[in-house]
Amino acid sequence: MKFAVIVFPGSNCDIDMYHAVKDELGEEAEYVMSDATSLEEYDAVLLPGGFSFGDYLRTGAIARFSPIMNEVVKAAEIGKPILGVCNGFQVLLEAGLLPGAMRRNESLKFICRPVELQVKNNETMFSSAYKKDEVIHIPIAHGEGNYYCDEQTLATLKANNQIVFTYYSTNPNGSIENIAGIVNARGNILGMMPHPERAVDPLLGSADGLKLFKSMVKQWRESYAVNT
Amino acid sequence: MLKVKVYVTLRESVLDPQGTAVKKSLQMMGHHSVEDVRIGKYMELTFADDAANLDTLVKEMCDKLLANPVIEDYRYEIEEVVVQ
């Protein structure tokens, strides 16, 4: 399985993402610059964390107009898995590929520490290797992870089981309903604030993030086997 | 020359943690009459006098980039600037 790791000016978790896929998962990964105009040769797209274009105006607001984002939309339309982590999640929200928006953390502080997450939906292509309601340890590192959406959108998210991860025991940033990660209605776009790519080896303090990438590979292999 | 002044603010239904912190600070200074503080952004865009469809243009810019309609409201004023 071949993963594209998108690199925006300011991305700084791209190398962690690449390492997670290449060295820990044992799959193929390549960096793709934000001004590239094709993602055809890739099976999945990873939008890494960090920053993008200085995050002027709002986080991800300028990145969403990068040429590569047209290709991300096309890849999403044909059902390829798209994973946006941290700034990647913010870009997906700004692009309208996921509903809602990010606000500054309630505490106004940048928070960088491991948190507990609960897997609310283990029936997505990103979470099938987890057990339902399993509590996992994944680090967060953000100043704007305070997820917001209106009540109607929240009701839709709940009705469609689109909330995949929630903060467990404490809510670090004030996000509504403790939301840490959501998928689109079709289920092939996941946005999450915590960094699974930073939790892929016990040496890093946790290997709980690896199952997320393994879920993606498993789904891809199964659909590939069916199609050939 | 035309100057467009754009004001972007968080929607009233959206909690403004920065505004809340500033309000508390003002109240601690003794300004107890302050009931609420909302922090927003102010932008100035400059156009040539003969810019066509300025209203449509500015609205599009606000809807797509300058503001995020999910959490923010915007308003703008168009001013003629006389160059001396």
From TrEMBL, chain A:
Localization, UniProt: Cytoplasm
The EC number(s) this enzyme carries: 6.3.5.3, 3.5.1.2
Pfam families associated with the record: GATase_5
Active-site residue numbers: C86, H195, E197
InterPro entries reported for this sequence: Class_I_gatase-like, PRibForGlyAmidine_synth_PurQ
GO BP, sorted A to Z: 'de novo' IMP biosynthetic process
PROSITE patterns per UniProt: GATASE_TYPE_1 (PS51273)
Entries under HAMAP family matching the protein: PurQ
Assembly description: Part of the FGAM synthase complex composed of 1 PurL, 1 PurQ and 2 PurS subunits.
Function: Part of the phosphoribosylformylglycinamidine synthase complex involved in the purines biosynthetic pathway. Catalyzes the ATP-dependent conversion of formylglycinamide ribonucleotide (FGAR) and glutamine to yield formylglycinamidine ribonucleotide (FGAM) and glutamate. The FGAM synthase complex is composed of three subunits. PurQ produces an ammonia molecule by converting glutamine to glutamate. PurL transfers the ammonia molecule to FGAR to form FGAM in an ATP-dependent manner.
Protein known as: Phosphoribosylformylglycinamidine synthase subunit PurQ
TrEMBL record, chain B:
Pathway(s): Purine metabolism; IMP biosynthesis via de novo pathway; 5-amino-1-(5-phospho-D-ribosyl)imidazole from N(2)-formyl-N(1)-(5-phospho-D-ribosyl)glycinamide: step 1/2
Protein known as: Phosphoribosylformylglycinamidine synthase subunit PurS
SUPFAM superfamilies the record matches: PurS-like
Its biological purpose: Part of the phosphoribosylformylglycinamidine synthase complex involved in the purines biosynthetic pathway. Catalyzes the ATP-dependent conversion of formylglycinamide ribonucleotide (FGAR) and glutamine to yield formylglycinamidine ribonucleotide (FGAM) and glutamate. The FGAM synthase complex is composed of three subunits. PurQ produces an ammonia molecule by converting glutamine to glutamate. PurL transfers the ammonia molecule to FGAR to form FGAM in an ATP-dependent manner.
Catalytic EC class: ligase
Taxonomic classification: Bacteria, Bacillati, Bacillota, Bacilli, Bacillales
Statement: the UniProt record of this protein carries the keyword Zinc-finger: no
Molecular function per GO: ATP binding; phosphoribosylformylglycinamidine synthase activity
